[in-house]
Design goal:
Blueprint: E1 5-9, H1 14-27, H2 39-49, E2 53-57, H3 66-76, E3 81-84, H4 94-103, E4 108-111, H5 126-135, E5 138-141, H6 157-166, E6 171-174, H7 183-190, E7 196-198, H8 203-206, H9 208-217, E8 223-224, H10 234-242, H11 248-264
Parallel strand pairs: 1-2, 2-3, 4-5, 5-6, 6-7, 7-8
Helix pairs in contact: 2-10, 4-5
The chain binds zinc ion (ZN).
Length: 265
Amino acid sequence: MSEIIDFHAHAFPDAVADSAMAKLQAEVPHVPCYLDGKIDSLLYSMDDAGVETSVLCCIATRPKQYESILSWCRQIRSDRIVPFPSVHPADPEAVERIGQIAAEGFKGIKMHPYYQEYILDEPRLMPLYDRMCREGLILVVHTGFDIAFERIDRGGPERILRVTEVFPELKLVTTHLGAWEQWDRVEEILIGRKMYMDISYAIDFLGKDKARDLIVRHPADRVLFGTDSPWDDQRRCVQIVRDMNLGTERESLLLGGNARRLLAG
Ligand SMILES: [Zn+2]
């Protein structure tokens, strides 16, 4: 059986995990949580679920968090944990920091239009995307609405499309099957395009049949397994994919083959 890579997981430094998780859970008290937000717990979950590698998505909610996140990413990187540091669009040195992230050998960056208060296709972001392209970095970005925020469109399908038109070479990974709770527009304008989508935090909301329909209509080499752990359970997510009967080839690409290729590139 081929390896499984979770392209979308979260954790925090041990010293702040309890307070970070408490704060996030207070924002969305109805949303279940499966781990305590620590790396050891994530590794335990990975072992339990048969996940070989997790991409650890960090979010700098303020510009000044850049350094501490980067230094934590240096400490935790391993064969099994592939950390993606984060830059904040309001950081005057954001473009240079993207260069530093690449120079230190990290594979990508994570950004989030709601927690970082920006719009996906606003002009301020263009120099950042340009630098990511030139450095060959992957950008995992939260796309679609966010469960913890008012439904103002910051990173919906039209905005995604505009970014990919300006930067066709950007290694952009959209999350939550294109755009969370904007799936009608995803289906209309994004499905079928040469664009990476992770499947995290989407299938339960879409329903298994609809999710499967979108997945099989998207290029087989562009769908990535992701869980949004600790907000979902890795073992359960693997099983949901296996139960979809996607066929051996598509399933193995989704669970790990596509991620391995993207991370190697
Ligand atoms: Zn996430």
